[in-house]
Amino acid sequence: WMENRAEVDMNSFIVIGHRGASGYAPEHTIPSYELALKLGADYLEIDLQMTKDGKLVAMHDDLVDRTTDGEGKVSSYTLAELQKLDAGSWFNKEHKKFAESVYENLKVPSLEEIIDTFGETANYYIETKNPDKYPGVEKELLKILNDNGLIGSGAIKGRVMIQSFSEKSLRKIHASNPDIPLIQLIKYQGRAKVSNSQIKKWKEYASGIGPNYRMIDKNYIHTIRKAGLWIHPYTIDNQEDMKKLIGYGITGAFTDLADRLVQASKEV
Ligand code: G3P
Ligand code: CA
């Protein structure tokens, strides 16, 4: 399964392994990403935080407390200090059913280590998280991707997608490199509605949107698709919801359980 991935068919349904295979393994660790690929995920989802010494690392929270044995902000640790923490044992305690001794003492991976490990055998769906707290995060991300041939001349389009709740962050990236597919994340508080002027704005810089899945309906999905935008809702772990939304025409989804979404996409 470690063969290089071919060009992504932008018209086919994509399975996005949310924090890897985070329903089965400690999120944002190398084993979690390995498992996601093995279970059939098309993309590895990576949330980015920045260390005190400016390194990009994969972690969802801006605090290390939930997913390591340390405490405090990621930004108060250098990469070397952060990598002394145990990023796996918490999972074994909380998910006894999926606990594995190899998860003990796993390290928080840097983005560069993830790319060194998977290279062209994976596709990457990367989120700039808290970009306002990390000035320069977009520039550093594009530099790493470019240095590794994942974007720029010769790179396969769609090898990397970048997502953010921050429109500002996505517009910055679009201004530096208009070829990277960008996804505008949205968190609806109530039932999702969308206007033509909103769609027009998204289309200035984004290829698609990522809404929270519970707030969207058939009508909303059809409107987004008619506008020619992709729609990748987050985070769907329930097979019934997967099938329902695939039936309505979503073009991909985030899931903690990649195998289940692969299965659902075959059954619809
Ligand atoms: O990036 C899509 C989804 O992951 C957004 O929510 O909080 O899990 O990053 P979160
Ligand atoms: Ca995310």
UniProtKB/TrEMBL annotation:
InterPro entries to which the protein is assigned, alphabetical: GP_PDE_dom, PLC-like_Pdiesterase_TIM-brl
Residues in GP-PDE domain copies: 13-265
GO biological process terms held by the UniProt record: lipid metabolic process
Example GO molecular function: phosphoric diester hydrolase activity
SUPFAM superfamilies: PLC-like phosphodiesterases
PANTHER family: GLYCEROPHOSPHODIESTER PHOSPHODIESTERASE, GLYCEROPHOSPHORYL DIESTER PHOSPHODIESTERASE
Protein name in the entry: Glycerophosphodiester phosphodiesterase
Species in which this protein is naturally found: Peribacillus loiseleuriae
